[in-house]
Specification:
Layout: H1 3-22, H2 32-55, H3 58-78, H4 92-124, H5 135-160
Helix pairs in contact: 2-3, 2-5, 3-5, 4-5
Amino acid sequence: MSRADHDARTRKIADDAERLQRDTRLDAWRTPARRRGLVLATLAALAGISVLAWLDRSVALLVAIALGVGLYVLLRRVVRGMADLPDAFVDERVRTMRNERYRYAYQVLSGVVMLLLLAGYLATDASRMTWQPEARHVHAAFWMVLGLSLALPSMLVAWGEREL
């Protein structure tokens, strides 16, 4: 990447960050109660996606994924992209808060992945269980881990911050 391309990309990120910070269109969603409701709705969508993948309901799964993506995009806009902006474009308070949220998100996601791996390990041992995992079960785990890895930092920002 040339220096000019890098500078143009940096300017675009700076412009996007500034635009997100000044955006007032979603201020009605920025109250603590509505943000928490949005977090709960996003979690419900992720759970629904996993359940539908587990049950192998393809059409309903596509609808749930579309709903989940819409909630995720709304959540990121409501928290003004704070969980994803580069350090150079946020102040020290936001940087500290974001690092705390990423640490919590990492701990939660690590726990979920470890539980899924443990369940998969136990499930593959036929002498301990009569149930054997199928592709749809792996899909359910995939969608849950993917959704959590993308949305959890923004969820924690939305849930924990007093003002955005």
